[in-house]
Fold this sequence. Notes:
The protein is of the alpha/beta class and 754 residues long. Among the domains are: 183-353, Isoleucyl-tRNA Synthetase, domain 2, CATH 3.90.740; 419-460, no CATH class; 592-747, Isoleucyl-tRNA Synthetase, Domain 1.
Amino acid sequence: MMDLPKTYEPKKFEDKIYRLWEKGNFFKPETNPKGKPFCIIMPPPNANGALHIGHAVFVTLEDLITRYKRMQGDACLWLPGTDHAGFETQVVFEKKLEKEGKNRFEIPREKLYQMMWDFTLENKKTVKKQLSKLGASCDFDREKFTLAPEIIKIVNLTFEKLYKDGLIYREQKPVNFCPKHQTSLSDLEIKYVEKKDALYFINYGRITVATVRPETMFGDTAVAVNPKDKRYKNFIGKEVSLPLTNKKIKVIADSAVDPKFGTGVVKVTPAHDQTDFEIWQRHKDEIPGPKIVIDERGRLTKETGKFAGLKAQEAREIVVEEMKKIKILKKIDKNYKHKVATCYKCGRVVEPISKEQWFVAVNKKGKSGKILAKDALDAVQKNKIRFVTPRFKKIFINWMENIRDWNISRQIVWGIRIPAYYCRNTELRNNNGCGEIIVTKGEKPEKCPKCGNKNLIQDPDVFDTWFSSGQWPFASLQAQTGSNLKLKIKNEKPPTNDFTKFYPTDVMETGHDILFFWVARMIMLGLYETGKPPFKNVYLHGLVRDKDRQKMSKSKGNVIDPLGVAEIYGTDAVRMALVFGTGAGNDIIISEEKIRGMRNFANKVWNVSRFILMNLENLKLKVKNEKLQLKIQSFTTADKQILKKLEKTIQFVTKNIENYRFHQAAQDLYQFIWHEFCDKYIEQSKSQISGEARSRFARQNPNLKINTQNILLYVLSQSLKLLHPFMPFVSEAIWQKLPGREEPLIVTKWPILK
């Protein structure tokens, strides 16, 4: 009988055990070829830096589910991947360039792309190593990257399909534009910050307008009042004077105007406000179209005359002074509080700028009859997709009922370039060219189908990264054909198509902060492209916070490096600490003290296993086929109690994992092993093994010692199985030392319920 070392030192075991699993190809679904298909698609980590504690959460939870299902006999595919992360990665790379004294705007597009490609590939290697360190039992032979050619092809095909269906269009209208990063952003990439600004009351001739942005008035094409506002009934249809200009603009009536705001009269600037743009669309026959008066650098355009070139904030002050001089500024309310849209990365105030961009029409019925938002809503409301935490279902429904068209254009280099080409034949339509838009699968067309011109220009923009990652479940599986699988299992044929076998996937586990960024996009695009939901269940975890429930940030100095603490306390301790005490959807409280406590638990398991192995001399094994082959008449009261409590623990842990109550399963298991098994039964077993038990039953039972040894080994083996999804390394390390074990714990069957 081989003894365990005196102390458990994770460093000496973890790499060795992970290599054992890899060598045995146990991470592949082919391990259980006849099992029920089960699939989780990994939320691909951004390939622009090291994994953080948030990544450790999803690795822990998804690995826990996968290991449990694998032990249940399912054919489990946990598909890993990494994300090029478009704008996010470009921001990270820009900071790197700035430290080197370089500017991305001075680097040619092709060279900059190659530099970022090399940067990302290096990070991909790091991410893979870190996933392994965290114990991720995913199939790396199937790993995918969101910029892989086969993924790009699928993304382009979806774009073309949506375009031909009338659900993608190109239009000039106000978009959120970040002057620092020089790109448009979607509504989800905007962070609203409460700010105190001045509210200016300006005389537009006989009527007074209230606005916080007087510098944009040069782009006003009308002023608007609510049609039910009796104060301005006689002004509707009349003209008023646009301040600081000689222009006359019309007063229109629109129900979007809030009569209680300011004076009840608002300026309509359709080029620089989404609501104003929508007002203009409803009144096209009455008022002029959008006029751009602020450019992409955040400066006033030549349309503003002598104010041209000034930054918006600077121009505001000068314009206000000009109006004071001619006494058309009626008053200023300096305590006006409102929410201001800022870039979620740099914090700069974004400029709504009218710009020609690509949009996904989410509420329009396509030629196919499909409506993206409605179809997604139906799938959730009819429970074709189940949210583990009900409150997120309500949040999802509310958001989807109010969703607006999605801007998918980004003015950056890094990403999948939009596969659209434009004909600029100047011989037609004056200087505007033919104007034909040609959408392809990615290949450049030979000529314009309308005029025959061969001088075609590809759209310089790239897709919003969420447009491509929104297709991740079906794209990653469709791209995984048998021809590109590096299978090493003898006599096993690779699947011809993972998509056919594993789609829809079973669980989407990710952070609740990207419910709209990613989960909603996946549901819309998955249903559209395949006709099926991309996953059956949605498990959303919370944010990771410190012991004082503060959000982790570098500035606060409370960030925990998961791999750093794993190096000190072991990977199992980190994983168990992330699961323990935190329900689905709730924020995860983590601290070094909590991780240290779980290290102590791992040591407890190790020490009790060592005690049992040291007391198995001369044991004639009665454990067969995972069942205890002993007569109940031979059991002591302590024996009966521990076996009964073990059975209940198996039931509780199994039921809680099945219902995604991982925290409760962890707590049940912790309670049983530490308190029932170690503190109580182990102490009782010592006298039963040594022959010092004083009860009459013990004295009359010659098989007491061997019975106790078998019970100890049985309870330990069952406990290790239950523990494996939570703490895979220490459980496998101990399992390898148990007598009569022919296969690794990772592929051993889950405990059988009586």
